[in-house]
Amino acid sequence: MDNPVDRPLSPAAKGARLYLWPLVLLGLALRLAVVWVTARGHSAAWFFGQATELGKLAESLRTGHGLSSPFGGSTGPSAFLSPGYPAIVAAIFAIFHPYSLASVAALMTLQALFGAATVWVLMLMTRRAFGVSAANLAGAIWAVSPPLLWLPTLFWETSLSILLATAIVALSLYWIDKPTWRAWALAGITAALVLSINPSLLTILAGCGGWAIYSIRPRSLSGPALALVVCVSLSAPWAIRNFHEFHAFIPLRSNMGYELWQGNRPGSNGAFSDSLHPNVNADEFSRYQSLGEVGYMHEKSTIAKNAIKSDPLRFIELTAKRAVYFWTGMVRHASFLIVGYIVLTTVLGLAGLWMLWRRNSSCAALFSLPLLFMPLPYYITHSDFRFRLVLDPILTALTAYLLTSRTPNADRPNAHAASSN
């Protein structure tokens, strides 16, 4: 069977050069400049106040209490967040002291490095699929776009999630070339790392993994089986810990019921309400404390499901609204600059995807799957502009493909769909 992407779909001009490291270093320099300005102009409380539960879980880890008490007090073990990013923050706290300006600078710098690494992975992915010219354009967009330069100032794991989501798609393109045992073992390790940082990326993992397996289907499936075994083995300790602590099966996170309640509770407009968060709402914290984490999440899930069942038309309307919000970025805390950027890359990226479907359906399927599956949980819970930005490198690659491609009838690629035998 031929490779589904056997040569780039947008050939480079003769003598074209990939400006990989200049664009990576430019992206890093601009992000560090933003970090410098932000760190000098804001307090540590401003930075850590963006996600107080993340800071509290990290401090709990640092002091030897494990992941516990995400909303303050002493409420016991928690699976509200996956352990990966709190562990990173805990390590920063251990070196630079908790909630200090030094920790702020260290975390922002680390996230700037994640952003620069995304430029690197994006360019390699785009070159593999669409050629050098598209890779240079995609890298330039991600290196200099103002909304992206500010991502390191977010306390959340957004910058790392974006890097990991891009890496999943990029590795899918490369793994089908040489699906060795080592490559599949690395795939399993990567999947376990992704789930420990942001379980929401499971949909991208499943979609891209399924695409890769389908693409090599005439060959042995022992490699994918190895990847699955490695991923499950590395992820099992977290699920075992949760079963031991909560006497419930929680393989990834415990918060789905709470997120569903936020977007669908009686009186909700479909968006997240900060005022109802246990971090700031005394009644909600008291309820969480008295019921315990599992009981609290179950109660919220029941309230949300009852609200959905009692008025399904309202749920459909809210879901449609959240879908629009996801793809436009028109949600809380989003500036006009962010909304404009998200709308532009959404429109251009989807246009590029439409062109790609006409020229190589297998490659188009790979780029479609994350766009199709990743937003689904946010359609039924609530959206935020940072969730949409996780998909931005994929849409940027498609945008670059659209802008650097020739007319559809010119240079039609000699590539076969993954279904070719």
Describe the structure.
The N and C termini lie close together (5 Å). The protein has helices at 20-41, 44-48, 52-62, 84-96, 101-130, 132-144, 146-149, 158-175, 181-197, 202-215, 222-246, 256-264, 282-310, 312-328, 336-359, 361-373, 376-380, 385-389, 392-404. It is built from 19 helices and no strands. Residues 407-421 have low confidence and may be disordered. With 421 residues, it is an all-alpha fold.
Please name the defining characteristics of this protein.
single chain, 421 residues, mainly alpha, 19 helices, 68% helix, 0% strand, disordered C terminus
Strand and helix layout:
Blueprint: H1 20-41, H2 44-48, H3 52-62, H4 84-96, H5 101-130, H6 132-144, H7 146-149, H8 158-175, H9 181-197, H10 202-215, H11 222-246, H12 256-264, H13 282-310, H14 312-328, H15 336-359, H16 361-373, H17 376-380, H18 385-389, H19 392-404
Helix pairs in contact: 1-5, 1-6, 3-4, 4-5, 5-6, 5-8, 5-19, 6-19, 8-9, 8-10, 9-11, 10-16, 12-13, 13-14, 15-16, 15-19
Structural class: mainly alpha
Runs in which pLDDT lies below 50 for 5 or more consecutive residues are: 407-421
Q: Tally the helices: what do you get? A: 19
Q: How many discrete structural domains?
A: 1
Overall outline? globular
Q: Radius of gyration in whole Å, from Cα? A: 22 Å
Extended strand count: 0
Helix content: 55-70%
Between the first and last Cα atoms, what is the distance in angstroms?
5 Å
The main pleated sheet reads as:
none
Query: Can you write the helix and strand succession as a string?
Result: HHHHHHHHHHHHHHHHHHH
Q: How confident overall, as mean pLDDT?
A: 91
Strand content range = under 5%
